[in-house]
UniProtKB/TrEMBL annotation, chain A:
Signal peptide: none annotated. Belongs to the Rieske iron-sulfur protein family. Its EC number is 7.1.1.8. It comes from Coniochaeta pulveracea. This is Cytochrome b-c1 complex subunit Rieske, mitochondrial. Binds 1 [2Fe-2S] cluster per subunit. It catalyses: a quinol + 2 Fe(III)-[cytochrome c](out) = a quinone + 2 Fe(II)-[cytochrome c](out) + 2 H(+)(out). It comes from the Eukaryota. It is found in: Mitochondrion inner membrane. InterPro entries: bc1_Rieske_TM_sf (IPR037008), Rieske_2Fe-2S (IPR017941), Rieske_2Fe-2S_sf (IPR036922), Rieske_Fe-S_prot (IPR014349), Rieske_Fe-S_prot_C (IPR005805), Rieske_TM (IPR004192), Ubiquinol_cyt_c_Rdtase_Fe-S-su (IPR006317). One of its GO terms (molecular function) is metal ion binding. The Rieske protein is a high potential 2Fe-2S protein. Residues 165-233 form the Rieske domain.
Automatic annotation (TrEMBL), chain B:
One of its GO terms (biological process) is mitochondrial electron transport, ubiquinol to cytochrome c. It is found in: Mitochondrion inner membrane. It comes from Coniochaeta pulveracea. This is Complex III subunit 9. It is a single-pass membrane protein. SUPFAM superfamilies: Subunit X (non-heme 7 kDa protein) of cytochrome bc1 complex (Ubiquinol-cytochrome c reductase) (SSF81514).
Length: 235, 64
């Protein structure tokens, strides 16, 4: 359209005297309207003889009585409402689907175990059940802590310093599952004063590190925390 | 008529304004819908849910 209009403007600029190129151009009626410069909306077909069937009907009866902006507003309002309801529905669908994968309330209730540490005297082991597995808690004496720190870490099968295995040195918390084949080791037994697995003879020291026997790794440390001084939360 | 034009100019004219309006409406509508539906559900199941019969079984239920 743009080149046609420029052409038409150029034709007008070249004065009415040279009207021949304008006439030549005006095979299309719309172009002739643009060239003459009038803004009449009437449409005259360039094809003579077929006036009846090509006449544009009168739509004024169907046109909105109001200015039209009410309809526009209503249209956008409906689009926006549909969008809002769809967005809420989509969000709800995804949220419920993801909630489906979350742990249920009974699982969450079993996930944490709280232990009162004041009831455990120094130098004693306590075994509690956590998520179906035994957890060893040992209140270590000062001598045991020193013994655990004295060990040459680099000579161990699974080298790990004692301070990496405990949060408070007097409290050793670890899963009571032998890393060999999953038996439960016996406390205060074995060659290293720690734990001894009766199934295949793995010896763990006072920090729960594997020292002798078939087990490949140290006893596992669960996630735990001391929310208060005399309270331990595992999980 | 004039206030309708204001509404249009404020909420629908620019795309980001319309998007913001739609999402804000969605948020508010979802809360309203959820609350209403929960109330309907509680009303239909009145007297059958744990929170309705809890004080019959647990002494001092008002403490919690």
């Amino acid at each position: 359209m743009a080149p046609l209009t420029t052409l038409a403007r150029a034709a007008v600029r070249s004065s009415a005297a040279a009207s021949l190129p304008v006439r030549a151009l005006s095979t299309s009626a719309a172009c002739s309207v643009a060239a003459s410069g009038t803004t009449s909306p009437s449409y005259s077909s360039p094809f003579k003889g077929a006036q009846k069937s090509t006449q544009v009907p009168d739509f004024s009866h169907y046109m909105a009585k109001s200015s039209g902006s009410t309809n526009q507003l209503f249209g956008y309002f409906m689009v926006g409402t549909l969008g809002a309801i769809s967005a809420a529905g989509a969000k709800s669908t995804i949220q419920e689907f993801l909630k489906n994968m979350a742990a249920s309330a009974d699982v969450l209730a079993m996930a944490k175990v709280e232990v009162d540490l004041a009831a455990i005297p120094e130098g004693k082991n306590v075994i509690i059940k956590w998520r179906g597995k035994p957890v060893f808690i040992r209140h270590r004496t000062q001598g045991e802590i020193e013994e655990a720190n004295k060990v040459n870490v680099s000579a161990l099968r699974d080298p790990q310093a004692d301070e990496d295995r405990v949060k408070k040195p007097e409290w050793l918390v670890m899963l009571g599952v032998c890393t060999h084949l999953g038996c439960v080791p016996i406390g205060e037994a074995g060659d290293f004063g720690g734990w001894f697995c009766p199934c295949h003879g793995s010896h763990y020291d006072i920090s729960g590190r594997i020292r002798k026997g078939p087990a490949p790794l140290n006893l596992e440390i669960p996630v735990y925390d001391f929310p208060e001084d005399d309270k331990l939360v595992i999980g | 008529m004039a206030q309708l034009g204001t509404v249009y100019n404020l909420f629908f004219r620019r795309n980001y304004a319309m998007l913001a309006t739609v999402f804000t409406t969605a948020f508010a509508w979802e809360m309203l819908y959820d609350n209403t539906m929960n109330k309907v559900w509680d009303n239909i199941n009145k007297g059958r849910q744990w929170k309705d019969i809890r004080q019959k079984y647990i002494q001092g239920a008002d403490d919690e």
